[in-house]
Amino acid sequence: MNTFIVIQQMLVLFALMVVGYACYKASWLDKNAYGKLSKIAVNVMNPMLIINGVLNKDTGNDYQKVLVNLALVGIYFLLLIALSFLIVKLLKIRKPLESLYRLMLIFSNVGFIAIPVISSVYGDGVVLYIAFYILGYNFLLYTYGLHLVEVSVNGNEKKEKGNSFKKIMNSGVIACLVAILIFATGIRVPSSVEAFVAYLGEPVIPLSMILIGASMAQQDLRQLFTDIKIYLFLLIRLLIIPVTAALIIKGFHLDARIAGTFILMLAMPVGSIVVLLAADQGADETCCIKGSILSTIFSVITIPIVSLLL
Questions:
Q1: Lowest mean pLDDT among 20-24, 203-207, 250-254
Q2: Separation of alpha carbons 14 and 152, rounded Å
Q3: DSSP letters of the chain?
Q4: Looking at the DSSP assignment, which residues form a beta bridge with residue 270?
Q5: Average pLDDT, whole number, for the chain?
Q6: Which residues contact 185 (CB under 8 A, 6 or more apart)?
Q7: Domains in the chain, ordered, with CATH?
Q8: What sign does the CA torsion over 5, 198, 64, 105 have?
Q9: pLDDT at site 119
Q10: pLDDT digit string (tens) for 93-144?
């Protein structure tokens, strides 16, 4: 593992966040533009980036590796769900926020940050492995994730989920399914189609980081940096969990790209989508805002540390 590459990548992403922060403060980007650009990034550009990761690329057709990756995807989510119960008790998080802290632990940034960081280390072909994480992520987010937010708002009462299936079948999930189909069938497309997908997908990496910076500019920075429990939570989330997992997984002698993807996924910061989900359902999204922004900042340091163990 070339840790220097990871450090360089994280510094570039951090610099893009600073650009977004400056653009918002200069009023070149306002809340209306932020919201619309976020929708384009999530629903158009990021799905294209997922497809671009496998389009006309030699994946080796090693289905044994795909099955191993699938097993690790299952372990990834089961592990985080189990640990989420333990960590909120350990940190003595008060009741209304318990489920939101669990939400932040389970749902990290497996797209915008994971794709550029992991692919910069292992190459574009690894996006296929990431696609399985994103598929599981989307399914759980709009089922179990919604349940956690509803518990935060209504205690143990259940709300009607309405069109949950429609939410699950969003553009991100569809892109993941297309990527898996391309891998399974070896479909090739004309170079013009490949270029179209690349042109739409690749800009989402700088755009997403600029938007995270703009999100930071909308917050009271004093409140961001004064919550002790969020620091303890992020220490566990960004360092203790991935470092422990890295030490354990070494004994299994797995393919370096598959094992590396699993560990780096565990090291990713809190997903910005949890903020939107909490706000949409009427929950107290303040702690989610803190978790998302601070974890993104700290990950500039913690991800390279974790990468030293790969």
A1: 203-207
A2: 32
A3: --HHHHHHHHHHHHHHHHHHHHHHHTTSS-HHHHHHHHHHIIIIIHHHHHHHTTTT---TT-HHHHHHHHHHHHHHHHHHHHHHHHHHHHTT--HHHHHHHHHHHH-B-TTTTHHHHHHHHH-GGGHHHHHHHHHHHHHHIIIIIHHHHHHHHHTT------SHHHHHSSHHHHHHHHHHHHHHHT----HHHHHHHHHHHTTHHHHHHHHHHHHHHTS-HHHHT--HHHHHHHHIIIIIHHHHHHHHHGGG---HHHHHHHHHHHTPPBPTHHHHHHHHTT--THHHHHHHHHHHHHHHHHHHHHHTT-
A4: 108
A5: 85
A6: none
A7: 3-307 (1.20.1530.20)
A8: positive
A9: 80
A10: 988 799 999 999 999 988 778 887 888 788 777 888 888 898 888 888 878 8
Q: Report residue 265 as tokens.
A: 């996924």
Instruction: For residue 88, give the nearest of 232, 245, 251, 277 by alpha carbon.
Output: 232
CB 304 within 8 A of CB 7: yes
Q: What count of residues does the chain have? A: 310
Sole residue written with tokens 């570039």? 12
- Which amino acid makes up residue 190? P
Q: Give me the amino acid identity at 207.
A: L
